[in-house]
Design a protein that fits this description.
With about 600 residues, the chain is α+β, with helices and mostly antiparallel strands. It has three domains: about 15-210 and about 415-460, 2-Layer Sandwich (BirA Bifunctional Protein, domain 2); about 250-385, YbaK/aminoacyl-tRNA synthetase-associated domain (YbaK protein), CATH 3.90.960.10; about 475-580, 3-Layer(aba) Sandwich (Rossmann fold). Helix content is about 25%, strand content about 30%. It is built from 15 helices and 31 strands. Strands 3, 7, 8, 9, 10, 11, 12, 21 and 24 form a nine-stranded mixed beta sheet that branches. Strands 16-14-15-17-20 form a five-stranded mixed beta sheet, with helices on one face. Strand 1 and strand 2 (about 40) form a beta hairpin. The radius of gyration is 30 Å and the shape is elongated. The model has no long low-confidence stretch (mean pLDDT about 85). It binds one RNA strand of 77 nucleotides through helix 13 and helix 14.
Length: about 600
RNA sequence: CGGGGCGUAGCGCAGUUCGGUAGCGCACACGGUUUGGGACCGUGGGGUCGUGGGUUCAAGUCCCACCGCCCCGACCA
C-alpha cells in the first residue's frame, strides 16, 4: 500500500480529552476514529491488525476443536425471555421493536442463540462434545464508555461455546480454553494473568478472567506474591484474623449517644474494632417474570472488616443491591445508626462467617443512643445465611499462604465461564443420554474482545514517539520510506524495492509521499510498523538500503541484492521471538 | 444517575470578564526555494461560534432550556 493514497492520516496532536495512551496513539496514528460515545470506526490500519488478532483467535480455537460459524446480532426477545435475562438485565441491553412491533434485542452475547441452535442440531450424546464459536459484533449500552477502545459500547468479540454431556467434559473444554487463551495473549505479546472472578450476569459455577495488569485498567485485583493467588476483588478471599475464644457473657445495654460509626464506638467503649459488629442495611432486588421483588437485607460483619457487595449480592442470590433508606430501615423495626439484628423478625440476616466465632461483640440496640454489649449469634439472633461477605484488600493475609496480599489494576481481556445447564435447561437444549434419558447440554462460554485486545497491545508496546507493534499484530511488516526528493534515481530504487517486497509476499506500507525526512520518520515511528527500510542517496552511497527495527536503535545497510532475504530473516526472527513466549501454564 | 470540565474551520486553541458583526498555529490548494528527524517565503479557500428560545439597535460574548463529548464516582463484563 502506498501511503500517498492511504485512507487514514496521522495527527500531530490528539483530540482534546483523549487521555489513555493507547487511545491517543491509535487516533494519532490513524487507526481509529470516534463516531459517538463508545462507538468507533476502525480505519484500514486497525482493520489489518484486527484481522491478524482474529486469525490468531481462529487458529487457537480451531486447535482445541472449535468450529467457526456466525450468529445474528439482532435477536427476537423470546430467547432472552426464555432464560430470564430479558428481565434481569437492565438498560445495558439495547431493545427495539421491529416493523411488526415485535420486541427485539441487540446481542450482548450469544448463549441464548447457541442453546436455541442446539435444540435442532444436537440430539444424542454420540454427537458430543462439540465446540462452536464466532467472531461477531456485540452491543452493550454501557453507562460509561472510556479510554478509547478499552471500554466501548459496540465491539467485536470472539465467543466460543462448549457443549458437553457432563461436568467432566465441561471441565476438559474449560481447561483447554484456559491454555488456549494464554497462547492467544502470548502470541499477541500481551502479558496477562488469569484470576478467579465473579460469574456476574452469565451465571454458572466457575469463572476466570484474563487480566492485563495496567494502571488504565478499571478492575481491582487482589494478588499474592508468595503463592500466586490472584482474584478479582469482587470475589477475592483472605484469611480473617481469628478472635480469641471466651465465655459468652450476658447482654448488657450501654448508652452511646451520637455514636454512629464503628471508629467512634470503638473509641468510646475502648475496645478494638474487631470486638464490634457492623450492620450494613441493603435492599436486594430480584428480577422475576412477574416483576421486581425487593428484599430487605441485614448484613452483619465484624467491625474490623468491610462488606464486599458482590459477595453479599451472590450470598442472597439477588440481581442488584442498593442502600436501604432510613424509611425502609424503620419499616422493618430497626433504628438507623443503631441497627441491631437482635429482635428483628421477617428480615433476611446475612452474617459473615467470621462473626459466629467472634464472641461478645458490641452491636446496635435498635434504640437511638444505645448499643448492646456481648451480642452473640446464634444465641441472641439467628442468621438466615452465614457466608463470606468480607472484602479482601491490601495487607490482608493470603488464605493459602498467609502472606500479605496486594492490589493492582487490570484490564479484563478475556473470560471463561462454566455455565452448566442454566441456558440449555431454560431453552430446552437437551440430548438423549446413553441411559435413554433426556438431559440438558452442559455448556461453557469463553470470550475475548478483539478491539480491547488491540488497545491493550498498544498500551503495552509504545514509546514516546509512538506505537511499537509486535510482528504478529502489526498492520504491515515493513514500512518502506523513500527519501527521494528530486532524485529520480532514488525514486527508481524505492519503486523497485517496493515491487520486490510485494513480489516476495512481504506486507509493506510504502511512504512515497513528497515529504521531508523528519515528517516521514516521525510518521513511521508513530505508526509503529516493526521494520523500517529507508531508501536515500545517503544509504545508496553506503551500498544499499537502510534497515532498522522499530524496537531497536541500531540500523544496518543491506545491499539491494540481499535485501529480500535479509528482511525475511528479520521477520522470521521476530516471529520466533513471539513463538518463544507461548508456553504451558499450570491450571489454577 | 451524582460531581466536575469542555463545545469557535479537519485538528489544537484565543476571543466570552466589560455585547459592536470572528482570529492564531497546524493541516489543505497554488507558485517558488528546500530535502536524513515534524522546513521557509508568498498567495488562497474553508465558520449555521453545539441546538433552540429569550434580552438588546446589536449576542461567540448576557439569560433559560436542551444536546453532545471528556474526567471522577455509581454501574457493568
Amino acid at each position: 500500500m502506498k501511503l500517498s493514497h492511504h485512507f487514514g492520516t496521522t495527527l500531530r496532536e490528539a483530540p482534546a480529552g483523549v487521555e489513555a495512551i493507547s487511545h491517543q496513539l491509535l487516533v494519532r496514528a490513524g487507526f481509529i476514529r470516534q463516531l459517538g460515545q463508545g462507538l468507533f470506526s476502525y480505519l484500514p490500519l486497525a482493520r489489518r491488525s484486527l484481522t491478524k488478532i482474529e486469525n490468531i483467535l481462529r487458529e487457537e480455537i480451531n486447535a482445541i476443536g472449535g468450529q467457526e460459524m456466525t450468529m445474528p446480532v439482532a435477536h427476537p426477545a423470546e430467547v432472552w425471555q426464555a432464560t430470564g435475562r430479558w428481565y434481569s438485565i437492565g438498560p445495558e441491553m439495547a431493545r427495539f421493536k421491529d416493523r411488526k412491533e415485535r420486541d427485539m434485542v441487540l446481542a450482548m452475547t450469544h448463549e441464548e442463540v447457541v442453546a436455541d441452535l442446539c435444540k435442532t442440531e444436537i440430539k444424542s450424546y454420540r454427537q458430543l462434545p462439540q465446540l462452536v464459536y464466532h467472531i461477531q459484533t456485540k452491543f452493550r449500552d454501557d453507562p460509561r464508555p472510556r479510554a478509547g477502545l478499552i471500554r466501548v459500547r459496540e465491539f467485536t468479540m470472539k465467543d466460543s461455546y462448549s457443549l458437553d454431556t457432563d461436568e467432566a467434559g465441561l471441565d476438559k473444554q474449560y481447561r483447554a480454553h484456559y491454555q488456549a487463551y494464554f497462547n492467544i495473549f502470548n502470541r499477541c505479546a500481551l502479558p496477562a494473568i488469569a484470576v478467579g472472578s465473579d460469574v456476574g450476569m452469565m451465571g454458572g459455577s466457575l469463572a476466570h478472567e484474563y487480566m492485563y495488569l495496567a494502571p488504565v485498567g478499571e478492575d481491582t485485583l487482589v494478588l499474592c506474591r508468595q503463592c500466586g493467588y490472584a482474584a478479582n476483588r469482587q470475589i477475592a478471599r483472605c484469611a480473617k484474623p481469628k478472635a480469641a475464644s471466651e465465655e459468652l457473657k450476658s447482654i448488657e445495654k450501654v448508652a452511646t449517644p451520637e455514636t454512629k460509626t464503628i471508629e467512634a464506638l470503638a473509641a468510646l467503649l475502648n475496645v478494638p474494632k474487631s470486638k464490634t459488629a457492623k450492620a450494613l442495611l441493603m435492599m436486594a432486588g430480584h428480577e422475576e417474570d412477574s416483576g421486581t421483588r425487593e428484599e430487605f437485607i441485614f448484613a452483619v460483619i465484624r467491625g474490623d472488616m468491610e462488606v464486599n457487595e458482590t459477595k453479599l449480592t451472590n450470598a442472597v442470590k439477588a440481581d442488584w443491591l442498593q442502600p436501604a433508606t432510613d424509611e425502609q430501615i424503620r419499616a422493618i423495626g430497626a433504628t438507623p445508626g443503631f441497627a441491631s439484628p437482635i429482635g428483628l423478625k421477617n428480615v433476611t440476616v446475612v452474617v459473615d462467617d467470621a462473626v459466629p466465632s467472634s464472641p461478645n461483640l458490641v452491636a446496635g440496640a435498635n434504640e437511638a443512643g444505645y448499643h448492646l454489649l456481648n451480642a452473640n449469634t446464634p444465641r441472641d439472633y439467628a442468621a438466615t445465611i452465614v457466608a463470606d461477605i468480607a472484602a479482601a484488600g491490601d495487607g490482608d493475609a493470603c488464605l493459602n499462604c498467609g502472606q500479605p496480599l496486594y492490589t493492582a489494576r487490570g484490564v479484563e481481556v478475556g473470560n471463561i465461564f462454566k455455565l452448566g445447564t442454566r441456558y440449555s435447561a431454560a431453552i430446552g437444549a437437551t440430548f438423549l443420554a446413553a441411559d435413554g434419558t433426556q438431559q440438558p447440554i452442559v455448556m461453557g462460554s469463553y470470550g475475548i474482545g478483539s478491539g480491547r485486545l488491540l488497545a491493550c497491545v498498544a498500551e503495552e508496546h509504545h514509546d514516546d514517539k509512538g506505537l511499537i507493534w509486535p510482528i504478529s499484530v502489526a498492520p504491515y511488516h515493513v514500512q518502506l520510506v523513500s527519501l527521494a526528493g528530486e532524485e529520480a534515481g532514488v525514486n527508481e530504487v524505492a519503486d523497485r524495492v517496493y515491487a520486490a517486497l510485494l513480489a516476495a509476499g512481504i506486507e509493506v506500507l510504502y511512504d512515497d509521499r513528497n515529504e521531508r525526512p523528519g515528517v516521514k520518520f516521525a510518521d513511521a515511528d508513530l505508526i509503529g510498523i516493526p521494520i523500517r527500510l529507508t531508501v536515500s542517496t545517503k544509504a545508496i552511497g553506503k551500498g544499499g538500503i537502510e534497515m532498522k527495527r522499530r524496537d531497536r536503535k541500531e540500523f544496518e545497510i543491506v545491499s539491494e541484492a540481499n535485501l529480500m532475504t535479509r528482511v525475511q530473516t528479520e521477520i522470521n526472527s521476530m516471529l520466533e521471538e513471539i513463538a518463544a513466549k507461548v508456553v504451558e501454564v499450570p491450571f489454577k
